[in-house]
Amino acid sequence: MQQGAGSEMVVTWEDQLNINRFSNLNNRFHDLEDEIKAAKERNENLEDASNELILTDEEVVRFQIGDVFAHVPREEVEDRIELMKEETAKNLEKLEEEKESVLAQMAELKKVLYAKFKDSINLEED
């Protein structure tokens, strides 16, 4: 009599593809979380810069372009910051949508994989 003979699972090619797909989605999910965090920080920094511009009475302010600071009229800087805030907000929205899509795909794969492998597979993070 062999012990554990009934507990051995057969992993098909399709199962392996699903496991790999879940792993890739999980990695993308973590990348998206990092990108979202960075976008939120950028948005906060832009908001802070915008608030600082409101407080200043200078007509020409220093504005960083690449690695250098240039003296730029305050109104132009305000316009640029507003444009940058809009771009960041759009990017953040796109990242949030992709994150939701990735989570939905991961949930579907979890159902499929747990249905077949039950306790033999762990798809939860510690």
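[next item in queue]
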Amino acid sequence: MALEAYASQSSDSIHTDVLSQARLACYKARDAFYACLEKESNKKPTESAYVGLLYPAECKKTREAYVNQCRPTWVKHFDRQYCAKKRVQRLLDDNESRRGV
């Protein structure tokens, strides 16, 4: 009987955040935000996000859409990935400029 009660509860609630459509919407919002970051990279960042990510005010709307479309844990994960990628890229760029070739 307990199993039947659990089955009836779980069939009524579908978590849309794990479905493929919601996942794709999250990826689109994420990509739009990071594209805005790349496009506006020459402007001074004034807004703050998770893990110390700074972004310009021009990207505020895309950031809000990104945060609304994705789970908070995903947003933190993607922000960490982006910051790590940028840190590595910055280190590689610095090493190339120091070679004196």
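[queue empty]
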